[in-house]
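Good morning,

Both structures are done.
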Amino acid sequence: MLSWLSDFIDSVAPSATVRRQHPLHRFSLATVGVVFVLFSTVIIAYDMIFPAQQSTSSLRVGSFIEQDIRAPFNITYPSEVLTEQNRQTAAERLAPIYAPPDPATTRQQVTLLQQILDFIDNIRRDPFGTPEQKMLDLQAITALRLEMEVITGILALDETTWRAVGGEAINILERVMREPIREGEVSAVAEQLPLQVATRFDQRTINVIVALVKDVLRPNRFVNVEASNNARQEVMNAVQPESRNFAQGQIVVARDTRLDAVGYEALERLGLLAVTDRRAQNILRAFLTSVFSVVLIGLYLTRFSDPAYMRTRFLAVLTIIFLLYLLSARLFAGSDPPYYIYPASGLALLLVAITKPEIAVIGTLIQGLMIGSIANNSLEITTLVIGGGMMGALLLRRTERLNSYFVMGVVVAITNISIAALFNLEQINNGAASTLTILFLYAVINGVLSAMVALVGLYVLTFTLNLPTSLKLVELSQPSQPLLQRFLQEAPGTYQHSLQVANLCEQAANAVGANAQLIRVAALYHDIGKMLNPAFFVENQVDALNPHDALNDPYRSASIIIGHVTEGERLAKQYRLPVRVRDFILEHHGTTKVGYFYTWAVTQAGDTESVDADQFTYPGPKPQSRETAIIMLADSCESTVRARKPANKQEISDIVDVIFEQRMRDGQLAEANLTLRDLDMTRDIFIEMLQAVFHPRINYPSATTAGRVQIEKELPRDSVLLTSTTATSSKTKTMELPFVVDDSVERRSEIEMSDPPPVYATRKQPSEIRPLVTLDDDDAPLQEVPPLRRTQRLNHVEDDNLPDKNNDKPAH
């Protein structure tokens, strides 16, 4: 069970080894894309697919509500209905604007009254009219509504009194209509007419005067329609929009009530009145958003493909992480204010830590697009999510440092504050500065939460999925790691070699923009397979004892040498090293041959066709990434330079050039995505660093002759001859090996063999050693070093290696 779980976790981790991909890789990627589209569509359009309550699409204003209707999420919106009601109320409260009194109206009515009096006077004077006829004529006056009592009184007045009545009526009308009389005020003025009549008249005469005046009384001050409308419009415009807000679960419309316009608007804003066609449109919009996102991601991965992150299961893990983040955003949709406190930028920081900034950037863009769709297509929320996430993804560099995440939290907070100010500055003018301050506070909390979420997610993913994150790599690089401790104790020479390779790789990776932290850690572990047979590798051999000489079998020797790759991968799996690190163990030799033993086998067989070259070839694969290609070159250069002991920088440069050319000629770098510029920079760094490590050293004297020190040059390890003789032939055959590096003997300049072996090893004399390159005067090593004058203290040191004291005197 544990083995199955370990294998499954390994299959999830990123790896650049394409040979491990499933044959149905493209089909699997398509499956991941379809799952992403389906789940993201459901999350975005969740409210449309799964309404929070019974269908309300048939409700209309005036409908009877049988059960409480509650808000499915928090919402704040400007109510157009309430705002319009407030505007109408304000307009109704505004008094109409009247024009000044119109004098023409007064003159017109006075003239009318004079004409009426003249008509009545003619009736009164008619000598042929009977009383009944005169009464009928007075009733025929349309401008007046005279009662019978008033008519009788008019006809009964004598001529003097009648003239006094007519004059008084004219005077009262003129006096009353000099004052402004508005529409609706005529009745009130008419009621005051008896008080306007002179006191000399009796009550019957007063009634006649009032009857004559009140019917011709008219308003003389009218409403200025244009000015009133303008004033009403200004008042309505001054009314501020009224907002309504509902918390999730709050009752919007109570049961046993009639649905009014305000409640209907609230249900519409909450999306609870969406008819079937509108729901279908919203679901289709969510689906198209998801499809567009998948297409965009697919094009990006195709254009900027990285084999390390193209494993189907790893992409499935990234999809799950993204969907969980999107689901949490949907659950957070009820926050107030929406998303300002939601740590959306945490996803970008997490993706940078477990993948690379490019993937974090595309993930942030897609996240912003989808969360903006969830937030009712809000441009503000989309900008908020993308702005903070992009800043975090582009500026987070040292992912292994915890303080880097909190610095990014501050950056995200500042970005969110800027976006909040960009979209909400008008609130200062509206007197809502406190609201903007709260948004700023939420933005700061957002940044802190984003950093914390990224750290927690990074920790969980690192140790549950065994991903090569910065935290994991820092842990693996500690010398106290059990595997490194065992490596140091069982194969100290290989361990030192790995340290040197790690230094070379780290500097080269920094120069070409590769993952320096990953390649350094991988370099420490790339040769751990040599721990199982350390003595068969030259860097661990002491006293020039080579077990391959006693083994005397090129096939078995090659198997042991090649086995350090496969056994190293098995050992790394046993110690739970991340898959990405194990790729370096498999790829750092690519598909090269163990050249020395292959040549030996060919020599024994007498012909190339009789030797199975596959038995002398590393299983590979070839380096699939820039990092594994760099470690292949660094491993070969370091071991070769250490074996040949070059005397100057030119010799180091020649060795490095030959190795680079050979690896390119063999096609080992064909799948590594290294450019020629990358190779040039890597070559220069290797030469500089190897020059610093393997610079010429002075050999201290072991004997003196006549005051001169004879310096004995150390015999290079690569000057080993393998010779063999037979009883039937004394002829010796000499073979020049190609310039290759083997883990068993590292370097042979010449091999002198006769058929058939046994083989034994001898060394050339110093006079027989051929230099690798011709040395210029400036590059030539020191010839002789004069002996240092001994101090009195050194003269008394007992050491078997020191020359005789009589010879310690300096030469004069």
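Second structure follows.
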Amino acid sequence: MDNLDANNAAPDASVPLSELDAHESSDVAGDVDQVGTLRGATATYSPEDNKLRLYPLSRLDAETYARVKDAGFIWAPKQGLFVAPTWTPSRADLLTELCGEIGDEDTSLADRAEQRADRFDDYREKRTQDADRAHKAVAAIVEHIPLGQPILVGHHSERRARKDAQRIDDGMRRAVNMWETANYWTDRAAGAIAHAKYKERPDVRARRIKALEADLRRCQKNSDESSGWLKLWNTEGLTLLQAQAIASRCRLNVCASTHSHWTAWDVLRPDGERYEACPAKTVAEVQAVAQRVYPRHIAHLARWIAHYENRLAYERAMLAASGYIVPPKAATKAVLPLLNYDGEIRYRNPHSREREIVVTEAHPMTQAEFAAINKDYKGTRVSEDGTHRVRTAMLHHPTRLVAVFISDSKKHARPGVAGDAPADPKIAARVAKAHATIAATNAARAEAAANNRAVLARPEQPKPAPATPAGIEALKEALRAGVQVVIAPQLFPTPAALAARMVALASIEPGQHVLEPSAGTGQLLLALRQAFGAAVRCTAIEVEAQLCEQLRRVDPLAEVIGADFLQVNAQPKFDRVLMNPPFVNADDIKHIRHALTMLRPGGRLVAICAGGPRQAAALQPLVKACGGVWEELPASTFIDAGTTVRTILLTIDAP
């Protein structure tokens, strides 16, 4: 027998009816205080979304809040109300008890969608601002430490560099996450409005009406069955045998133990056949239970039936106002007459896209033999000319599909070739009527489709373009690469302003070949390309493999050689040399002397070296001998690299 689940939702036919169900105590209204226990609170119902809403004026006490929550209501803080996902009798009774009555919801589905979209727009704006602040914070750090800048392992700046690298990484991730969250809320806002418009579409409403009609039929059937069982249980002088026959079909739960529910069938069985834990009940006791349970269940179903009827009235009125016409069902092949004849039978193969025609001999069998075949293995097929149907059956041993002729039933005259009308005038009339029905149905469907296309026609809503700034995309790419950590002692990247000045001092001419030894992060290469573009040929030498990859990204046109510069063969083939060599252990002296051997006659070398006594003793005389320039740079030149080491900018012209 049908019953309701614990949340008092729509009837579920899979659960047996029970006197002990939780919903029964609140199914029937009638003794509810119409004043309401929540002063000033209001309750509404909206047929558009089938939801109940509770608008409290103040905070609910703990007991009332627990009851509202247990009933399935959810608190919506932005709207200041409790909302239930669907209407149920128990939820309606609770709101009637708390508020006195349930009114109509003033806010439409479209209005609520607009309000929801406005809230989502506020969320998007806040996340966009967060993303912008995070982006600016990253840019402030990156302004001094370029993305991909190696950390000087072992240098006094390593600790601060690692903290800055982590701040850059965290900031980039926050900026990307906030921007993606902003886009998420943009999509949610558009989705809220689109969903509301979809729910109001006439074709969607028509399908919703079909579902409601199915629910209404199920409740009515359930109520009729319950009334029938109640009538049987109310029979005067009901015997034990009759009660057992009724109990074997109705599945009425009479009582329960710790782990089991016992039905009327269980409690009415004899002592030798009844379960050990199952109690025995008399017929009168079972009748008393049925007389209590079924009326309550029927009244409960009556509330659902009334609810579905009210919803259908609303939905049908809205559908009629829209001008939408529900297309009639297509005429099936069942309208064609079913003929019984022997000999050659020609019918259409419904599973063939090429409209295959099957030609076979009728297989004779009696009515009893045909009736003995399972209904899943019987059917009909439309004849080749489309004027009638013939019976078919699936036979086994061997398995095959045959056209059937019932030998002991009325035999019809076999129609002629394709296109000929059946010989029997009655059959001809039935064929004509069937074709007229099909034609009328197709015409009605075509008319309804044309009308509905006009009703559903609406201008295309422009979709918002995804606003993804190039800065966020750049951050995503940088996050994939991360901050490179390599062992590069005493690597001080050349500041951009100093690199541009060194390029100017080199007096480079288009077409010349320029070398940057120990290129590091490629700051001098970048300054060269910015000044001359592809007009000069560049070669960079770097021992670290990761830095070589970065150099190739900085200047794709340059020739990058991965090697120790001091081990490269000295060949005087470069017109200019720009260099910022490592300073540790006076390596800058060795690098500059080795670079001079690679200059062509008349070439120029512009280099940075440490301002220590060893460099002054080894390199300053060489600069003076060649008529070069020896210039001490300010102590703050490499402050961004975390050092105030004294440095010299020197220029040497090869003889």
